[in-house]
Amino acid sequence: MARVNKDNRILEQYRKYANIRMNLIPYLMEEAANCVGMSRPMMAHLIYDYPEDEKVIDIDDQYMFGRGLMVAPVITEGHTERNIYLPEGEWYDFWTGERTSGGKIIEYPCELEKIPVFVKNGFIIPVNLNENYVMGETDKTGFVGNKIDEYTNLCFVVYGEGEYSVNAMDAESTIKVRATENRIVMECGVEAAIDKVTIIFARDNSKAWDVTLNGEKAATRPIIAKIFGRTVPGYAVNLG
């Protein structure tokens, strides 16, 4: 495609999205398990989550990707913006972390490098990041590898108040993270196969966060991540 269109940006964007797909493996695995248990499609019409909202019935170009992400792909060649319907509630731009109230249609700019994706309020998105905590670059700095049986850095990206749980690479332990006000509350089995997780804030946040693990103050160290070109803060949390 790059050769046919004489545009090497195609290669750059494919590389970026291939890496983001691997970044999202923790989320994809948890949501796939939920879909099996609940007989729900991974790519679901909005009616699954908003059965009382008559406005979603005729929307055929947006979908829920798992329970926490809503995707609104650009399907018309050459378009640089599109209308997106956000159901009731709060929504966070996956790329910028900006919050928008739902129950309305918004006009969204659609640059070549950014497919419109929103995070549903109440969800924290787990991702696997590389050793430098980089996500969403078009060059090799965003590379995370293709392994699905181990994580380089299991991270929870906090967009707003919410919670999420992931299987800790073994069948015996689950890691649960809840964000509320200025607190991060974590619960984890003592025999987890992962010895560290990282909390990352989708937007730069100068507030001091209280991080607890299994009811006690957690052992943390500050880190800096680069998420979609933005430098954002976080905490590496020792689970041992």
Percent of residues in helices comes to 10-25%
CATH class categorisation of the largest domain: Mainly Beta
Main sheet makeup: 6 strands, antiparallel
Radius of gyration from CA coordinates: 18 Å
What's the architecture of the largest domain in CATH terms? Sandwich
SS content category: mainly beta
Tally of DSSP β-strands: 20
Query: Quaternary arrangement of the chains shown?
Result: single chain
Globally, the shape reads: globular
Strand-residue fraction? 35-45%
**N-to-C SSE series?**
HHHEEEEEEEEEEEEEEEEEEEE
The total of helices stands at 3
Identify the CATH homologous superfamily of the largest domain.
Golgi alpha-mannosidase II
Distance between the termini: 48 Å
Chain-averaged pLDDT = 91
Biggest sheet: strands side by side, in what order?
A: 1-2-3-8-5-6
Show unreliable segments: none
The fold-level CATH name of the largest domain is Immunoglobulin-like
The count of domains is 2
Describe the structure.
- The chain has 240 residues and is mainly β.
- Helix content is 14%, strand content 40%.
- It has helices at 2-5, 9-23, 25-38, and strands at 43-44, 63-65, 69-71, 81-86, 90-93, 99-101, 104-109, 117-120, 122-123, 125-129, 134-135, 153-158, 162-167, 174-180, 183-188, 196-201, 210-213, 216-217, 219-227, 230-238.
- A hairpin with a 6-residue loop joins strand 13 and strand 14 (174-180).
